[in-house]
Amino acid sequence: MATSSDIRNGLCIKYNNDIYKIVEFLHVKPGKGPAFVRTKLKSVTNGKVIDNTFSAGHKIEDVRVETHKFQFLYNDGDFYHFMNEVDYSQIRLVEAALDKPELMKEGEVVTVIINTEDNAPLSVELPASVILEVQSTEPGVKGNTATNATKPAIMETGAEVNVPLFINEGDKIKIETEKGTYKERVKE
């Protein structure tokens, strides 16, 4: 059993007969009244995100988890297939268990969180950033770079990311996976 002071990003807890992963949290200590923790919880079974407030010292039931490195193999429409890098066993997950599936390309190594009680995969964490190639975007206009203007670009995985005007088709860019935003252009 944990308490509200143990809440951190990525913690998996049992709440309302389901398993949730904490996506965001904020400890609040108002001038008057007791402290509390405001959280954003994501269900690992259906992907639904809810907001909840826990009072200070509230008991929460945490779920014991292990992390393993898996390689993303392919997506067949309904399921995403992964292979364990150690024993080559394969698992498949529904899209709801993934945070940003549109940023994953085949061969990407991800961290899979597994429940130790029943060895069921709970969620997938992408690396902090991924490198993807720009498939299509409008050409930049010379001299139009004085502002922080951006344009939409379609990546090789089908994800749409806003990029600066100097990015062209075929460029490889680094994308921050947590927010799904452009970080920098990658030179080869």
Automatic annotation (TrEMBL):
Keywords: Cytoplasm, Elongation factor, Protein biosynthesis
Residue span, Translation elongation factor P/YeiP central domain: 67-122
Gene3D superfamilies membership: 2.30.30.30, Nucleic acid-binding proteins
UniProt cross-references to SMART domains, sorted A to Z: EFP, Elong-fact-P_C
UniProt key word Cytoplasm: yes
GO MF annotations in UniProt: translation elongation factor activity
GO cellular component: cytosol
Pfam families xrefs: EFP, EFP_N, Elong-fact-P_C
Biochemical pathway: Protein biosynthesis; polypeptide chain elongation
Locations listed in the record: Cytoplasm
Any Gene Ontology biological process: peptide biosynthetic process
Record-linked PROSITE patterns: EFP
Domain Elongation factor P C-terminal: from-to ranges: 130-185
Family: Belongs to the elongation factor P family.
Function according to Swiss-Prot or TrEMBL: Involved in peptide bond synthesis. Stimulates efficient translation and peptide-bond synthesis on native or reconstituted 70S ribosomes in vitro. Probably functions indirectly by altering the affinity of the ribosome for aminoacyl-tRNA, thus increasing their reactivity as acceptors for peptidyl transferase.
Protein name: Elongation factor P
Taxonomic lineage from the root: Bacteria, Pseudomonadati, Bacteroidota, Flavobacteriia, Flavobacteriales
